[in-house]
Design brief:
Blueprint lengths: L9 H8 L16 H12 L8 E2 L1 H9 L5 H15 L4 E2 L6 H4 L15 H15 L4 H8 L3 H10 L8
Parallel strand pairs: 1-2
Helix pairs in contact: 2-4, 6-7, 7-8
């Protein structure tokens, strides 16, 4: 039998459970974690006797471009919902929650917002991919870069890509 702990005040409970603090930045600041989290949530929520569903490139781009105000919990719920809604082995944009389906890709920085150059480049690539419906050749042309450079940048920014 485990001993019972008498808690007389809420502060007592706080100090008992506040042994170690872990500070994580919000998911919107850790976009590169999204593909790993998606893979983990797919394994967690997919039916056990079925092949794991895969995300279409367009659906993954929507996940990567969303700000996730609900952080990891919101992402997990979106994955669980998408698995339940999907009727095929591939999760596409219509299988995502409405807040994701109809969200636009990241807007350019606001007039007074200072954004690192690599973040601006990542946003431009995501917007161009969205504009061209994932067509890499058209995206590279739109951005004024070569297809090889585009693939290198996609890898650098850990943007999931499908093979053409």
């Amino acid at each position: 039998m485990s001993p019972q702990i008498a808690i007389s005040r809420p502060q007592d409970l706080y100090f008992r459970i506040n042994v170690v603090q872990i500070k994580l930045p919000p998911l919107r600041d850790r976009k590169t974690d999204i593909p790993l989290l998606v893979a983990s949530f797919l394994e967690k929520h997919a039916p056990p006797d079925e092949k794991l569903p895969v995300f279409s490139e367009a659906a993954m781009l929507k996940l990567m471009s969303y700000d996730w105000p609900g952080n990891v919990r919101e992402l997990e719920n979106a994955i669980a919902r998408s698995i339940a809604i999907s009727t095929t082995g591939q999760i596409d944009v219509p299988d995502l929650p409405p807040s994701l389906q109809f969200s636009s890709f990241e807007l350019p920085p606001q007039k007074d917002e200072i954004v690192p150059i690599d973040e601006m480049e990542r946003r431009a690539i995501l917007r161009a991919l969205n504009e061209t419906n994932g067509d890499k050749v058209a995206t590279a042309r739109l951005l004024g870069i070569g297809k090889t450079t585009l693939y290198r940048k996609l890898k650098q920014y850990r943007v999931p890509i499908s093979e053409d």
